[in-house]
Each structure stands twice: as C-alpha cells, then as structure tokens.
C-alpha cells in the first residue's frame, strides 16, 4: 500500500499538470479524478483558491480515496446532464462515471469533495453525498 499523498496548492490551471505529475505512480483514473476535482474548484470557487489534495490508496474496500478540500462550504458540486455539445459541466459526470462513490463533507469554513476509485474503475451506481 502506498503512503498517503497530500499536497497544498493554489487552484490554478497550471496546478493541474503539476498534480498529475505528482500522482504519476497512481493509475489514470486516480489522476483524472484528482485533476477534475481540482478543476471544479477553479471553475466554481475561483482561480487561486487554496486547496489541499489528499490521495489514500486502499482507504476503503481496496478503493483509492481522492479528496480536495477548499475554504468555500457553500459551493457544492452538482451532477449535471452535460450534452455532447457543452463545453463545461462534465467534471462531475466524469467523477460519477469513474468512481465507485463520491460525496461532499461540509464543515464550518470548508468543504471536502471526495471520490473513491476501485482497482477496475467504473461506477457501481452507489452514491453518497454529504456523508
């Protein structure tokens, strides 16, 4: 099992490739989910927002848990039915498709959006928001 990964950074477009590089030992689905969660902060909370990214392999049922914490508890992600022609709104749809489950933990002054990716990826249809 890998040691837990934690990185504090500012949510900027340049941070996404850095995050992917830092997670190079993890599989594609983990890297994709982590960068999508980071991009969600950029798009819906604001560029330059301080975030903490955590990745814990084998966290629950052999899944890898990816968490992105930011200081805006009210900006909760939503799963949209993005169409093929939409240029945005696909981030949480990707998370929903790749993750076993995902959710949001809200606390005073911050929130953590998380997902759990299995060893084979893909959704089981189980969702758990606000656990």
From TrEMBL:
Pfam families xrefs: HATPase_c_2
Q: Which InterPro entries match?
A: Anti-sigma-factor_SerPK, HATPase_C_sf, HATPase_dom
Name of this protein: Histidine kinase/HSP90-like ATPase domain-containing protein
Where does the record place the Histidine kinase/HSP90-like ATPase domain? 28-114
Q: Which GO MF terms are attached to this record? A: protein serine/threonine kinase activity
Instruction: Give the UniProt keywords, A-Z.
Output: Kinase, Serine/threonine-protein kinase, Transferase
Superkingdom field: Bacteria
């Amino acid at each position: 099992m890998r040691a837990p990964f934690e990185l504090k950074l500012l949510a900027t477009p340049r941070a996404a490739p850095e995050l992917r590089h830092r997670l190079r030992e993890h599989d594609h689905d983990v890297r994709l989910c982590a960068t999508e969660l980071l991009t969600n902060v950029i798009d819906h909370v604001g560029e330059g927002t301080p975030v903490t990214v955590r990745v814990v392999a084998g966290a629950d049922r052999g899944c890898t848990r990816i968490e992105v914490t930011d200081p805006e508890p009210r900006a909760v992600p939503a799963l949209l039915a993005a169409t093929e022609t939409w240029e945005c709104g696909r981030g949480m749809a990707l998370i929903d498709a790749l993750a076993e489950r995902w959710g949001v933990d809200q606390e005073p002054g911050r929130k953590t959006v998380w997902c759990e990716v299995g060893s084979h990826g893909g959704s089981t249809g189980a969702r758990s928001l606000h656990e």
